[in-house]
Amino acid sequence: MSFSITVLGSGAATPTIGRNPSGIFVNIGNNYFLIDCGEGTQMQLRRFNLKAQRINHVFISHLHGDHFFGLVGLISTFHLTGRKETLHIHSDSQLQEIIALQLKHTQTQLVYPLEFHPFSQPHETLFENEQVTVKSFPLVHKITSTGFLFSEKQKPRKIKKDFIQHEEVSIKDIKRIKAGEDYVSPQGRVYLNRDITIAAPPPRQFAYCSDTRFDEKIADYIKNVNLLYHEASFLDDELDTAKEKFHSTASQAATIAAKAKADQLLLGHFSARYKDLNGFMKEASKVFPNTVLAEDGLTITIPLK
Amino acid sequence: MSFSITVLGSGAATPTIGRNPSGIFVNIGNNYFLIDCGEGTQMQLRRFNLKAQRINHVFISHLHGDHFFGLVGLISTFHLTGRKETLHIHSDSQLQEIIALQLKHTQTQLVYPLEFHPFSQPHETLFENEQVTVKSFPLVHKITSTGFLFSEKQKPRKIKKDFIQHEEVSIKDIKRIKAGEDYVSPQGRVYLNRDITIAAPPPRQFAYCSDTRFDEKIADYIKNVNLLYHEASFLDDELDTAKEKFHSTASQAATIAAKAKADQLLLGHFSARYKDLNGFMKEASKVFPNTVLAEDGLTITIPLK
Questions:
Q1: Does residue B188 share a domain with residue B143?
Q2: Cβ-defined contact of A69 to B80 (cutoff 8 Å)
Q3: Is B286 part of the contact surface with chain A (CB cutoff 8 Å)?
Q4: Helix, strand, or coil here: A168?
Q5: What letter would DSSP give residue A16?
Q6: Which residues in chain A have Cβ-Cβ distances shorter than 8 Å to B72?
Q7: Is B240 a catalytic residue?
Q8: What is the pLDDT along chain B (305 residues), one digit of tens a residue?
């Protein structure tokens, strides 16, 4: 099953040439999600040839413009291009009012259903199907800000190929074995479940930590995550600015990755004041070596173990 | 005095790679204006190295998203980069409500004054200073749509250099001569105004015709304009679509240019369905030869005659 994310915007509130505001496209087994939708996100989806029309769920971390100003444009383009599927928006409640007012004044009657799912508590399951769950957790920003944890579901143990080839096992039996039962052949021979099956690979997880002050509790919410995106607006020489503006530094983001025992850290949301990003890599990798800097268009695939 | 316009977006409602939604940057003698502000306009201003911070007046032709979804982002970036000057928005009245709601929910208290000037009648003077006037005129679209005519003011006649060099003329006299009076020397010799002055070049004009159905009356509003931007969403084979959607074809735009006796026609707002734009040039130039196709980043300077 595929599990990849693509960075649509690696910049902070003020967009720069080459760094769009926030947005991440997620593909987990052909379930497509969008996290945040800064201005220009729809153009980025097009630029990087991503399956924009197949996004059914959008998660907006918080209501600062660089995280949602592009949403109304995406919604409008879906309308103009004849979308049929329902689009689900998971966000703070006020976003519904913002979108509704713009649809009203542009006299737009959407040709597809748009459903808002306002956040109701700091930790909740926002989405679940047979393959994926998306859960929220609280961040610490000037305004309410929410992180997201995307988790593959644990797959059942697989029946060994040579067992199926040698024995005449019915479909009913296969279901039972997959559910963990042992198998008894018509001749009365008992096969222990652990001998005739192999474990599926461990499920993969991606966590998205949008705008937030450094908060150690975040590490507890995302323990053992394979890939952690964490904002890193500043370097350590701007530690006070980071604190004052409720943002994080590169080394603070790396500290969260280390405490969470993440496999890999992806830094983004770089303040426009930094022309050269080497400092981010230097400061973060001291604390957490397996760090990558976000770039618009960068795709990271989480491999099966 | 400079008089130039730069295309920020040449596409229609659905943005394409390389064609942003509508926006035009206008520079008349270092008075900077923005017409329309589709999503991504602030990035285009940056990309083309234009003096975004010096824009004091924004004119929004109508409230379809591809003409204003980028405005809230531009307003926010001006805020984040510490703008001080008042920003004036000229538009239909509902835009104020849309912007205000977003500033409220993003908890933004702008650090500079933002003033809305809602359109009040179909023809009005929206802006005037010593060098420029901006007037509005009605277009014909699904919703109220407004065109804009940017006019340089007629400059006073210039006093001939050799006259000033040979005669001892006071500053008071110069003002009188510029105001059209004849000059009488201390010796009682009379110099006729027409002999000691030369006419300033004729004032230049740029007209912006945003989304509109073909309407011959438009030509009357913009007679003898030097440069006409007119939307051309479709080709002639989509004449019925154009009519139904309240848009124009390339040859209809050219007909307006011809009837207005414009010097030059700039076509834009091309529907995303056209990958190749040669047809637009072909159909328009049959009716009006001096036609140019808009491209993102294209600057046109209107020369003095």
A1: no
A2: no
A3: no
A4: coil
A5: B
A6: 65, 69
A7: no
A8: 899 999 999 999 988 989 999 999 999 999 999 999 999 999 999 999 999 999 999 999 999 999 999 999 999 999 999 999 999 999 999 999 999 999 999 999 999 999 999 999 999 999 999 999 999 999 999 999 999 999 999 988 889 888 877 767 888 888 889 888 999 988 889 999 999 999 889 999 999 999 999 999 999 999 999 999 999 999 999 999 999 999 999 999 999 999 999 999 999 999 999 999 999 999 999 999 999 999 999 999 999 98
CB A249 within 8 A of CB A289: no
Using a CB-CB cut-off of 8 Å, the residues of chain A touching B62 are none
Return phi, psi of residue B225, to 5°.
Answer: -65, 145
Answer yes or no: do A86 and A52 share one domain: yes
| Chain B environment of A17 (Cβ under 8 Å) | 43, 46-47
Task: Tell me the CA distances in angstroms from A21 to A40, A42, A291, B72, B201, one per residue in order.
Answer: 8, 12, 21, 14, 46
Q: Are the C-beta atoms of A190 and A290 separated by less than 8 Å?
A: no
Output the domain CATH number for residue B220.
3.60.15.10
Residue A131 shares a structural domain with residue A269: yes
Residue A162 sits in the same domain as residue A214: no
Task: For residue B290, give how far its alpha carbon lies from the nearest alpha carbon of chain A (Å).
Answer: 32
Tell me the residue range of the domain where A21 lies.
Answer: 3-155+200-301
Catalytic entry in B66, B211, B215, B296 = B66
